Amino acid sequence: MATLDINRVRKAYGNLEVLKEVNISVGDGEFLVLLGPSGCGKSTLLNIIAGLEDITGGEVLIGNRVVNDLPPKDRDIAMVFQSYALYPTMTVRQNIEFGMKIRGIPAEERAKATNAAAEMLQMTGLLDRKPSQLSGGQRQRVAMGRAIVRHPDLFLFDEPLSNLDAKLRVDMRTEIKRLHQRLGTTIVYVTHDQIEAMTLATKVAVMKGGVVQHFGPPQEVYDRPANTYVARFVGSPAMNIIPGRLLASDGVPTVAFDTPQGEAVVRGVPLSAETAHRFAGRDVLVGIRPEHFGLDPCGTVPVGVDVVEPTGPDTLIVFAAGGTEVVARLEPFDAQVGRQERFSVKAEKVVLFDPATETRLD
Amino acid sequence: MATKSLARQQMLGRLFIYSALLLLALYYLMPLWVMVTTSLKPLDEIYSGSFIGLPQAITFEAWSKAWSGACIGTECTGLRPYFVNSIMMVVPAVLLSTGLGALNGYVLTKWRFKGANLVFGMMLFGCFLPYQAVILPMAQVLGRLGLSGSIPGLVLVHTVYGICFTSLFFRNYFITIPDELTKAAQIDGAGFFRIFLSIMLPAALPIIVVSCIWQFTQVWNDFLFGVSFTSGSDTPITVALNNIVNVTTGRKQYNVDMASAMIAAIPTLLVYVVAGRYFVRGLTAGAVKG
Ligand SMILES: Nc1ncnc2c1ncn2[C@@H]1O[C@H](COP(=O)(O)OP(=O)(O)O)[C@@H](O)[C@H]1O
Ligand SMILES: [Mg+2]
Question: Distance between CA A346 and CA B73 in Å, rounded?
Answer without folding.
Answer: 106
